[in-house]
Structures are given as C-alpha cells and as structure tokens.
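Because showing beats explaining, we let one protein speak, sequence and backbone structure tokens together, and leave readers to judge.
___
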Amino acid sequence: MDSLVSDARYGLRVLRRAPVFAAVAMLSLVLGIGANAAFFQLIDTVRLRDSLWPLAAGVLIGPPLAVAAMRAARTLLFGLSPTDPPTMFGATALLAVASALAGAVPAWRAARVDPSIALPCD
C-alpha cells in the first residue's frame, strides 16, 4: 500500500513539472491499450470464436470415442493399455494445439488485410 501511495505522489509531481510530457505519455498508453484491445477483439470476432466451438466439442467427445476405438484395436497396441493416460492426454493436447493453430493462423492473416482492399466499394 505504501508503494501505491508513493507511486501516486511521484506521478502527480511529474504531472506538475512536465504536464505536456505526462499528457503525451498517458495518451500513448491509452492509444496503445485501446489498439491492442481492438485488435484482439477483431481476431476474436473474425475467426477464433468460430473455431473454438468445434475444438471444445472435439476435446469433450474425442477421448471417450478414442477409448472405445482403442478397446476394439487392443491387439494392435504394443506395450500400451487401451486407456493409457499419458497417451490420451498427449493426443488430446496435440489435437487441441493443432486445432487452435488452424483457427488462429487464418485469423491472424485476416487481421493483417487492409479493409479498404478487402472490401472495395463503388
């Protein structure tokens, strides 16, 4: 709590000594934070939200179906039980990362496109 009070006092002293510098610094921070929030909102709206629902469904439905498939293919497993936890977790994590990247890469590319080029008007 003491450091918060001393930081506030220091900020007020800097604001009194150099109000233009303090205003420019605050404006830079506000614009940077706002641009960052707008960028990630755009990515979320454009692509990520659409790709996360299938990912969640696959993570919830996939492991029980994989256990059923492994029980059926028990003779093909060498040194693994049908419900080997590290293998199940590893496969689920690998597929989750691949699915997240499959949604994030197009979103990242779409965010880099200039709207005036992508949506020309007459």
In short: The chain has a mean pLDDT of 75. The helical segments are 2-17, 19-72, 85-112, 115-118. The chain is about 85% helix and 0% strand. The longest helix spans residues 19-72.
